[in-house]
Design goal:
By secondary structure, the chain is mainly alpha-helical. It has six helices and two strands. Helix 2 (about 30-50) runs antiparallel to helix 6 (about 145-165).
Length: about 160
């Protein structure tokens, strides 16, 4: 004899869960976890290896004259192909995650960064006559690379499980 089990789920109950998730999804813990696991754990190491964390951009353009640029530190070493960024400058120290609203995060260079950092970020991200484009922040219609998005999905899934338990 089979046992029959019935359960009623009210749409009202589902709306309460949805409201809770929307209200509590992005908190300080998620922001800190995102900064630690995604930005510092995946995005910055990709940039350091000369790989764009933005989907479709691949490796950064190499230095035109590695013997003279970017200074004595790298010119003594064998030039890396295509580029090796040590992440020691001011620009990457400003690369972080902030809570934008109740359910969204902003990742990149924040509005309170210095004017010099904002100019440098735009020049590197979009390129200029003398600075090749090295996309490190997605623009409108672009997304992060698959490896980054996989970890974002894992982090968000973990956050949903925490909220629902």
């Amino acid at each position: 004899m089979a046992l029959k089990v019935r359960a009623k789920v009210s749409l009202k109950d589902l709306r309460k869960v949805e409201a809770k998730i929307a209200k509590e999804f992005v908190d300080d813990k998620l922001v800190n976890d995102f900064q630690r696991t995604i930005v510092r754990g995946i995005i910055l190491p990709m940039i350091a290896k000369g790989i764009s964390p933005v989907k479709g951009f691949g490796r950064f353009v190499g230095y035109k004259d590695p013997e003279s640029y970017p200074g004595k530190g790298k010119s003594r070493q064998k030039p890396s192909r295509p580029v090796n960024l040590f992440l020691t400058g001011e620009l990457m120290s400003w690369f972080y995650t902030v809570k934008a609203s109740g359910s969204s995060l902003n990742v990149g260079i924040p509005a309170n960064a210095t004017k010099f950092v904002k100019i440098k970020a735009e020049a590197n991200n979009l390129g200029t006559d003398v600075i090749p484009r090295r996309r490190f922040i997605p623009q409108e219609g672009e997304t992060w690379a698959v490896s980054v998005m996989r970890e974002v999905k894992n982090l968000f899934t973990k956050r949903m499980k925490d909220l629902l338990s």
